[in-house]
TrEMBL record:
The lineage of its organism: Eukaryota, Viridiplantae, Streptophyta, Embryophyta, Tracheophyta. The keyword Metal-binding does not apply. This is Integrin-linked protein kinase 1-like. Residues 137-385 form the Protein kinase domain. InterPro entries: Ankyrin_rpt, Ankyrin_rpt-contain_sf, Kinase-like_dom_sf, Prot_kinase_dom, Ser-Thr/Tyr_kinase_cat_dom, Ser/Thr_Kinases-Pseudokinases. It comes from the Eukaryota. Gene3D superfamilies: Ankyrin repeat-containing domain, Transferase(Phosphotransferase) domain 1. The gene is LOC107417087.
Length: 405
């Protein structure tokens, strides 16, 4: 009983990474991994930083079998997250009618759509911001979590998080600003392959960003230790990156474009999967001209068919990262932007298939029409898993990798 009470207190001393692993299983639809944790005593009602449960995530992603498993373990069907949404609210939001029926039969309520909404003004969204006094730094240490700002590990309400200080005037004439609207949007993003954004604080000429803490380091360190990765690991990591990026690019009404995807902002979680960080950097750029509100977001939309399409740049960065995982880092640069050089992938040491080589060539091609979407990349990678006699399920792949070092 004491153990379960401790798990339910997501801001207590309990290890949030264990909770993150549990919720990641629910979001990915990994019934085997989730069931093992439930058998070992993990409460089905554990909540993340924003009070979201495994039921919330499974309802959002459309995993009916996960919903049924959690209900079998007596999960509370009407727990609310920070935005007062229940799992049924999320199921309705994403149009998963089968899950709506399951939740309704089991007593699920939608407290937002079943009663009048309270009008909320934009200034009220400041409630998602942090109080700087809540960040305790006595045992803090620096961490590698990207290129934009200095990051340290700190304690917040009893759990480790990462505080990144971003200078307000990195690139003139642009200043670093995160609007209340963008702050709220970022906090609501949920996917097992993107780093969780928790909030921000404005301090004079600096922005302080708070994100989840991952202890396993970044992809750059992983590659540098091994020189290059084996085929199965590279495929699995590429699949993680593609899934996370596809989630961001499919965001409505405008895609969330990264622009700065590299091995330093790809972070490894406790389960050995990659999460994408720094996807908020473009939102930090707000022109000093007050009439150019939200210009970066609108630019992303207007460039969708042009030569500067940010989604195509992200695909190119992905292709280069995939190449680096398979072949090792080229000796000509420490941090290569493949769009700024005449990059031609040459495959000398990897055992990748002809189709994977073609995929990397297309992703990094100067002909933008050849660059695929991340949705198409995912399809190709999952077909490669099948050709290798492996399921595309991350848990199945993990099991095979453990037996093929």
């Amino acid at each position: 009983m004491m153990k379960k009470m401790k798990e339910r207190n997501s801001f207590g001393d309990f290890d949030m990474q264990m909770i993150g692993k549990f919720l990641s299983f629910a979001s990915r639809g990994d019934r085997v991994g989730l069931n093992l944790m439930l058998i070992k005593g993990t409460s089905p009602d554990v909540q993340d930083y924003d009070n979201r449960t495994a039921l919330h995530l499974a309802a959002s992603e459309g995993h009916a079998s996960i919903i049924e498993l959690l209900l079998h373990y007596k999960a509370n069907v009407n727990l609310k997250d920070r935005w007062q949404r229940t799992p049924l609210t999320d199921a309705r939001l994403y149009g998963h009618r089968d899950i709506c029926r399951i939740l309704e039969v089991n007593g699920g309520k939608d407290f937002i759509h079943d009663q009048p909404l309270t009008i909320r003004h934009e200034q009220d969204s400041n409630e998602v911001n942090f109080d700087i006094s809540e960040l305790h730094t006595p045992d803090s240490s620096s961490v590698k979590q990207g290129d934009f700002g200095e990051s340290v590990k700190v304690k917040w309400r009893g759990t480790w998080v990462v505080k990144t200080v971003v200078k307000r005037h990195i690139f003139q004439p642009e200043k670093m600003i995160l609007s209340a609207k963008d702050n709220t949007l970022l906090r609501e993003l949920r996917h097992p392959n993107i780093l969780q954004f928790l909030g921000s604080i404005e301090q004079q000429e600096e922005m302080v960003l708070i994100t989840e803490y991952l202890s396993k380091g970044n992809l750059e360190d992983i590659i540098s230790k091994r020189d290059r990765l084996d085929l199965l690991t590279a495929l699995r990591y590429a699949h993680d990156i593609a899934r996370g990026m596809n989630y961001l690019h499919e965001h409505k009404p405008f895609p969330i474009v990264h622009y700065h995807l590299n091995t330093r902002n790809l972070l490894q979680d406790e389960g050995g999967h990659l999460k994408i960080g720094e996807y908020w950097v473009q939102m930090l750029y707000e022109r000093t001209n007050p009439h150019e509100d939200n210009c970066q977001r609108n630019d992303s939309a207007s460039m969708s068919n042009g030569p500067l399409d940010g989604t195509k740049k992200d695909i190119c960065s992905f292709g280069y990262i995939f190449y680096e995982m398979l072949e090792g880092r080229p000796s000509n640069s420490d941090t290569v932007d493949p769009e700024s050089i005449d990059f031609k992938p040459i495959f000398l040491v990897s055992r990748s298939s002809r189709r994977i080589k073609e995929l990397i060539e297309n992703c990094t091609s100067n002909d933008l029409s050849r660059r695929p979407s991340f949705d198409a990349v995912i399809t190709i990678l999952e077909e490669e898993f099948s050709l290798l006699g492996m399921a595309s399920c991350p848990v199945c792949v993990d099991s095979i990798i453990k037996h093929h070092p």
